[in-house]
Each structure stands twice: as C-alpha cells, then as structure tokens.
Amino acid sequence: MEKNSLFFAVLTLVLILLAALFSPVLGPPLLALAFFYYFYPYLSSHVCVKRGFAVASLFLTLWLWNELKGILIPFVTALFLAYLLDPVADILEKKMKRSLAVLIIMIFIIALSTLSVLVIVPKVVDQMTQLIQMIGKNQAEIFAFAEKHWKALEKTDLIDTQALLNSIKEFMNNLTKQLSLLFTGFSTLFQQLFNIVIIPVVTFYILRDFDKIKDWIFSRFATKERKKAEEGYFHFNRIFGRYVRGVLLDSLIVGTATFLGLLIAGVPYALFIGIMTFIFNLIPYVGIWIAFGLSAVIVLSSGFGLKTILIMAAIYFLIQVIESVFLYPRIVGKMVGLYPVAVMIMLLILSRFLGIFGLFLGVPISALFWFFIDRKLMAHKEEYGKKV
Asked: What is the pTM of this model?
C-alpha cells in the first residue's frame, strides 16, 4: 500500500513537472483534460483527487468564461431568465401544455420589451438629454446653494465642508460625462441585434425543457449523491431564487410608485428618477436612499429649490414605509439567520471583490454562505455527539 502511494505521489509530481514544461504549448483546456484522464481512476478512492477535480473544473470554467464570454453572455442570460420564469411556467402548466404556457410568457415579455423600446426608452433618453443641458447651466447656482446652507455645519467642526464641497464639485463635473456615457451605452445596447434575437429564442427552448434539463443533470449522479444534489438545489432555489424574484418585483413596484408620485407632484424627470430608483432599490437597506440622494442632485441641477426636494423626500419616505411594512415582508420574505448589520458588512466586502454585482447579490450570496457553513457546523456537531 505504501509502495502504491509512493508511486502515485512520484508519478503525480512528474506529470506536474511535464505540465509546467509544456504549458505554453498545451494550453489550459488540454492540461485540464490530461488531468481528468490521469486522475479519473482514483476519483472514488482519494478525497484529494475529488477536491482536485473540483478545483480544476472551477479553473477551467473561469478560463473558458474569460475566453468565450462574448459568445456565452446571451446563453447565460437566457438560462438566468428561464430560471426566473420557471415558477410562472409551472403555474400555467397546470392549465395548459408546457409549450403553450412558455409561448404565452415569451409573447408577453417580447410585447412588454417592445413597448419599452418604443415608448419608455425614447422618453428616458429625451429626459437625459435635457438633464445634461440643465447641469451645465445651473452648476454655479448649485454650488452657491450648497455654500449658503452649509455655513452652520462648518461652525460645528463636525464635517470638513470644504472637502465635501470639493467632492460635490468633482461629482458635478463628472456627472455630465457619466450621463453621456450612459446615453452611449443605451445606443450600444440596442445595436446588439444578435443578442436581442438570440436571447428570447434560447430562453424559450430552455424554459420549455427546464424540468427535463434538471432531471437529466440529477440523473448523472449516483443515487446517494443525487439526493444531496437535489437537496442542494432545493435550498439554493429557496434562498437565491426566491430572493431575486422577490426583489425584482418589489423594486418594480417601488420604482413605479416613485415615478407616479413624482409625476403627480410635478417633480422634473420623474420617469428617469423612477427607473433609477428601481435599479438602486435592488441594493438592500441603502439603495433607496442612494436613489434619493442622486434624485436630489438631479432636481437641484434642474434649477428647482428646497421645496421640491422636501416634496420628493416626503414621497420617498412614504413609499419606503409602505415597502418596509407591507411589500418587502410579503414579497421577499425574511432571509433566515441573517441580521441587517451582518448583511451590510457582507455587502461592503462583496462589493470590494465583485464590484456592483456584490451590492446587488450580496444578500442571497451571504444567505447561501451562511446555509453551507451552518450545515457543516451541524454535521460536525452530530459527528462529535456520536463519538462522545
């Protein structure tokens, strides 16, 4: 046994050296295939080999994504949309055939997207164009307003008002540039005709066969491993799926309510602010107030005064109360075992490593991490209890 282990270790070392020597020629995919081919016979008998397979698979997946992301993004997007829409298809499937249910869903989404492109997007672009023009005209008035109302703060020595003013000036100088880039981004987005065509088509086929695809994937596992895989997917779907679907619906309601409230109150750029609120409300706890801060800057840039800001603050506050008390608990629900302070810390950490995606997906990622850690701790506790 010791001879076999020694032989195994020496042969592994030789293969690693050969891989290092020939890596410029072989490339990551061939190296990964060589690794899988060599270590496959030891997969069931060596724990380290199992972990090696997992690590090598992860590295290969990351490499492939980096090399092929331009091609893969439409298909990944379609898979994500199919995952989100699967519960709706399951509900409709009880009353009609799966293919017809999926077709109705896709027609509805395409009609909604077409309406957005023809009606909403032109209005948003028009408001953005007006906003860019207004910012250039009213910068001096905004700075004068800020300096006038912050003299009281300066006397308290609690805030370095000069540094704050410099930051705001820098922000205002860059805001026009960022909005212009956003405008360019809209134009570029709608030039990607291939993606616009391919995503609905692929989404239709994946959504139609979503349950079959799941069953096929689970059937690749052995009986014992399949049960673990199904349980893992169940918990992932319960945490990630419920949260993402719930937050999207919650943010859509909040964004729409903000748009209607600002429109009725006569606040400028209500549609643009409503869409911005929808996007930022996806960030838990602080997103709605980031949206309000940016909205206040937009309103000030348009030449409106403190009265308009107070009206807007009242609308945001009322919507936030309704969302916190009635909408969020019913639509999103409570993430088990997570506390607001812990979530905020995780948001900061994940945003450091994942950027903006860390903010949007911080809660479900934190919940999944906590679930796996808690399950491992409980398993160790049970194992320790048996030994004692």
From this structure: 0.69
